[in-house]
Write a structure and sequence with these properties.
It contains two helices and six strands, in the order ααββββββ. It is an alpha+beta fold. The chain has one domain (3-133). A hairpin with a 2-residue loop joins strand 3 (100-103) and strand 4. Helix 1 (3-19) crosses helix 2. The chain is globular and about 45 Å long.
Length: 134
C-alpha cells in the first residue's frame, strides 16, 4: 500500500465515521477535527501532483466544469467490497449521490488501493487514471 493509498483510506474512514454520526454526537467534532488534519496532510503531500492529473483528465475528457481541489473528488462515503490480494480494503462509492458531479450525469471520483480516478458517465464507470500506471 502506497503512502497515497494510506492517506486516502484514512480520509475515507473518517468520512464514513462522520456519515454515521449525528452532528450533536459528542464524538463528531473530535473526528471531524482529526479528519481535517489528515486532509491538510493529503493536500500538502499530494495536492500538486493530483491537481496535474485531474487537469489532464479534464482536458482529455473535455469536462466543462471548473476543476476543484483534489479533496473534492474523494466521495462523502464509500463501502468496502472486501479485501484486495494485498489485504487492503477494496472500496467503491456507496452511490453517485456521494460523488462530485462534474457535468450532466458525469461524476469523477478518487478511489484508493490502488489510487485511481474513476469517471462515471450515464451510470457506467471508466478508470481514467491509475497511480500504478503513472
Amino acid at each position: 500500500m502506497t503512502e497515497l493509498d494510506k492517506i486516502i483510506s484514512k480520509i475515507i474512514e473518517g468520512r464514513n465515521k462522520l456519515s454515521r454520526l449525528a452532528y450533536n454526537d459528542p464524538r463528531y467534532d473530535r473526528i471531524e477535527e482529526k479528519l481535517h488534519d489528515i486532509e491538510d496532510i493529503f493536500l500538502d503531500k499530494f495536492g500538486s501532483r493530483l491537481e496535474r492529473v485531474i487537469f489532464q483528465v479534464y482536458q482529455k475528457y473535455k469536462i466543462p466544469s471548473e476543476m476543484l481541489s483534489p479533496l473534492a473528488y474523494i466521495a462523502k462515503s464509500y463501502v468496502s467490497q472486501g479485501k484486495n490480494e494485498d489485504e487492503t480494503e477494496n472500496y467503491t462509492i456507496a452511490s453517485l449521490d456521494v460523488a462530485l458531479s462534474v457535468d450532466d450525469d458525469t461524476f469523477l471520483v478518487l478511489v484508493p488501493n490502488p489510487t485511481r480516478l474513476l469517471l462515471y458517465k450515464n451510470g457506467k464507470s471508466q478508470e481514467v487514471w491509475n497511480s500504478l500506471k503513472d
